[in-house]
Amino acid sequence: MKKIVVTVLCMFFAAAATKAQVSSTQTVSLSLTDFIEMDFTATGTATGPTVTMNFNTTDDYANGVTSSAQQIKVMSNRDFNVTVKSSSTSFSYTGATTPAPVMPVSGILNLMVSANATGGTIAAPFTSYASVTSTNQNLITAGNNGGNQTFSVQYKATPGFAYPAGTYATTVVYTATQQ
Q1: Does any domain span residue 91?
Q2: Which structural domain, as residue segments, surrounds residue 88?
Q3: Between 120 and 15, where is the model more confident?
Q4: CB-based burial label for 96 (10 Å; 0-12, 13-18, 19+)
Q5: For residue 140, what are the contacts with CB-CB under 8 A and spacing of at least 6?
Q6: Domain with 76 in it: what CATH number?
Q7: Which of 65, 83, 118, 120: CA 20 to 30 A from 38?
Q8: pLDDT confidence of 8, banded at 50, 70, 90?
Q9: How many independent structural domains does the chain possess?
Q10: Is 8 inside a domain boundary?
Q11: Residue 92 included in any domain
Q12: What is the 3-state secondary structure (H, E, C) of 112-155?
């Protein structure tokens, strides 16, 4: 009789410990698109601050003037390349000389990559100062995907003594393209 009571009690507790159970499932789908963005860190936008290079001494005209470093950040979910070019073949001119002098960008405005944290390679010839032209030139190749891939550039202008006083400007265009 003791065995029957113990057996019944064990079955009772086992049944009480077992509960009914049911499962449901749901699929979660992420729809990602290719994404790339490039900003100047100084402004947080795709438009960088104006870089003003003043020529005040004979040495400035003879040897050129160098800008401070301009940092650019690329955010991309794929590896990328960056190219550079001037928006035109000549600087625009604002000043008193008539007719307006024509200063070519190529041969006057030079650029080099002064820092590279993209995981990519600085394209030749931009490991040192090289001329900016109006056609796309590789600047960074095989940059790694990520949210904070930065590089910095510096400009050097060497107009010499051939141009009158005034303000000469051009727009430098950087283009990041996913691989």
Answers
A1: yes
A2: 37-46+60-178
A3: 120
A4: exposed
A5: 80, 81, 82, 113, 116, 118, 120, 121, 122, 123, 151
A6: 2.60.120
A7: 65
A8: low
A9: 1
A10: no
A11: yes
A12: EEEEEECCCEECCCCCCCEECCCCCEEEEEEECCEEEEEEEEEE
Spatial distance between the Cα atoms of 118 and 133, rounded to a whole number of angstroms = 23
**104, two tokens:** 């070519």
pLDDT, tens only, 153-162:
999 999 999 9
Query: CA 92, CA 62: separation in Å to the nearest integer?
Result: 22
Residue matched to tokens 């990519």: 120
Amino acid at 115: A
Q: What residue type is assigned to position 165 of the chain?
A: A
Model confidence over 131-165: pLDDT tens digits?
999 999 999 999 999 999 999 999 999 999 999 99
Q: How far is CA 127 from CA 20, 25, 45, in A?
A: 70, 55, 25
